[in-house]
């Protein structure tokens, strides 16, 4: 809008018509809520949090410039290192297992059979419910020493233990909870599978390809754009997991930091210790790492994502 | 159909059903446990019980001092409803501008909008908190609702832009012939035709807002403002493990709104995920 008056004087063209001007104004009225939100709640805060990451800030006193101190401190902070490890372990285990489960079940359900809609709903339900505090509470109970899991194990004469309170297993229970929610990715895979032309499978059958061959030679390559999409979405989602870790560890990230997810530690730093400069620095490291991982996936996609139209997006 | 395909089909069905039951068993077990007397909940891993009771629901409902879960539900519903209405109006306005109108800097703003979709909330968290703190909005519903009034859920804008682009432009043109302006095209052509994407937006806004534990724990800190997830957490902390029956009862209740929305609008949800997945 700012440039609209300058245009007619610099370039010798007929004056911008009143209609056009009016149109621009109306367009900006439609855009206004978003524009306010973007400038005031996204862009402004982004810049400000970048600045705060170089300061010591506790909300009540003015921020005090400390240069790179927050960033340097992180690499000596054993809890920070633990939290980075927990989140990376989680991402590298939970994302692939979830996607594999989603893909296998999607292939199984991609048939014309009775009750397929019902099955699809059943498998989708966990991802609808799984993000809630209620399910996190249930999970905590399931894996406790006298919980359902150990009762079932006792049936088979296996002696269980307090999975939640053991530092080697606590993270595992949260990974299982994440894998349990494969339904949303499954629905996206199902939509992708429907797009694969039937003729390809028929041709493969004529050529005597086995089911496993067809899966690896036809289904997987043709589904690769969807795998790519799901991978990016799940990466962004899992690097930010908070609720389940918070509830299951009662906000501590224990035992022995084994469920100290990155976002949980960021929350503790920012809102329990009020070290908001440090928390901002942590946030920017998160943005940076997520950005790098996403870029790696994007650039590697050339080699493994197969587009029907030759790669035009 | 020959015998071997028949058998293999049957086996597929059996596998799918057993695996599905296995997955949903914990939830079904929680529902059954919420109706069992406290002492019988952990007596066996099965679903059945010698005695059934609804006492857990009464105890759970009134367990937090000076308030009830009714208050928490009211707060959750208020926040979620405002979020739904706000997202439908403001995201569709922005999407309409991006999909249909011409204006300076359009490409720049559109790129900005796309970038914010993938931006983790943590990047803006501390300054946002500082702003809301300075405005005196902490411990009110404003930090949870005002961002929705300012269309900060860029994902939905993107979703709507994709949908709006699919609505034939001839409809706009004939509306202009009939004397409609830009506003009327939005209210009379675009919005009525965009009902499916608006419903998808409404459902996901509702579910995500209802479950948005992180923002709620950040901004709401006294019991009378607590939402259902915060109420559950408080309950768990204060009760310890002595009363799982009522914890489960309230957990079950907390899942009902989401489940209901899901079953009413199931078609839109599944189609919504599928189409966004492909178009994304």
From TrEMBL, chain A:
<feature type="domain" description="ABC transmembrane type-1">
    <location>
        <begin position="84"/>
        <end position="297"/>
    </location>
</feature>
<dbReference type="GO" id="GO:0055085">
    <property type="term" value="P:transmembrane transport"/>
</dbReference>
<dbReference type="InterPro" id="IPR000515">
    <property type="entry name" value="MetI-like"/>
</dbReference>
<protein>
    <submittedName>
        <fullName>Carbohydrate ABC transporter membrane protein 1 (CUT1 family)</fullName>
    </submittedName>
</protein>
<dbReference type="InterPro" id="IPR051393">
    <property type="entry name" value="ABC_transporter_permease"/>
</dbReference>
<feature type="transmembrane region" description="Helical">
    <location>
        <begin position="88"/>
        <end position="109"/>
    </location>
</feature>
<feature type="transmembrane region" description="Helical">
    <location>
        <begin position="25"/>
        <end position="52"/>
    </location>
</feature>
<dbReference type="InterPro" id="IPR035906">
    <property type="entry name" value="MetI-like_sf"/>
</dbReference>
<keyword id="KW-1133">Transmembrane helix</keyword>
<comment type="similarity">
    <text>Belongs to the binding-protein-dependent transport system permease family.</text>
</comment>
<dbReference type="GO" id="GO:0005886">
    <property type="term" value="C:plasma membrane"/>
</dbReference>
<keyword id="KW-0813">Transport</keyword>
<keyword id="KW-1003">Cell membrane</keyword>
<feature type="transmembrane region" description="Helical">
    <location>
        <begin position="277"/>
        <end position="299"/>
    </location>
</feature>
<dbReference type="Pfam" id="PF00528">
    <property type="entry name" value="BPD_transp_1"/>
</dbReference>
<keyword id="KW-0472">Membrane</keyword>
<feature type="transmembrane region" description="Helical">
    <location>
        <begin position="239"/>
        <end position="265"/>
    </location>
</feature>
<feature type="transmembrane region" description="Helical">
    <location>
        <begin position="121"/>
        <end position="139"/>
    </location>
</feature>
<feature type="transmembrane region" description="Helical">
    <location>
        <begin position="169"/>
        <end position="193"/>
    </location>
</feature>
<keyword id="KW-0812">Transmembrane</keyword>
<feature type="transmembrane region" description="Helical">
    <location>
        <begin position="214"/>
        <end position="233"/>
    </location>
</feature>
From TrEMBL, chain B:
<keyword id="KW-0472">Membrane</keyword>
<protein>
    <submittedName>
        <fullName>Multiple sugar transport system permease protein</fullName>
    </submittedName>
</protein>
<feature type="transmembrane region" description="Helical">
    <location>
        <begin position="77"/>
        <end position="99"/>
    </location>
</feature>
<dbReference type="InterPro" id="IPR035906">
    <property type="entry name" value="MetI-like_sf"/>
</dbReference>
<feature type="transmembrane region" description="Helical">
    <location>
        <begin position="244"/>
        <end position="265"/>
    </location>
</feature>
<dbReference type="GO" id="GO:0005886">
    <property type="term" value="C:plasma membrane"/>
</dbReference>
<dbReference type="InterPro" id="IPR000515">
    <property type="entry name" value="MetI-like"/>
</dbReference>
<feature type="domain" description="ABC transmembrane type-1">
    <location>
        <begin position="73"/>
        <end position="265"/>
    </location>
</feature>
<keyword id="KW-0813">Transport</keyword>
<keyword id="KW-1133">Transmembrane helix</keyword>
<feature type="transmembrane region" description="Helical">
    <location>
        <begin position="108"/>
        <end position="129"/>
    </location>
</feature>
<dbReference type="Pfam" id="PF00528">
    <property type="entry name" value="BPD_transp_1"/>
</dbReference>
<keyword id="KW-1003">Cell membrane</keyword>
<keyword id="KW-0762">Sugar transport</keyword>
<feature type="transmembrane region" description="Helical">
    <location>
        <begin position="12"/>
        <end position="35"/>
    </location>
</feature>
<feature type="transmembrane region" description="Helical">
    <location>
        <begin position="189"/>
        <end position="210"/>
    </location>
</feature>
<keyword id="KW-0812">Transmembrane</keyword>
<feature type="transmembrane region" description="Helical">
    <location>
        <begin position="149"/>
        <end position="168"/>
    </location>
</feature>
<comment type="similarity">
    <text>Belongs to the binding-protein-dependent transport system permease family.</text>
</comment>
<dbReference type="GO" id="GO:0055085">
    <property type="term" value="P:transmembrane transport"/>
</dbReference>
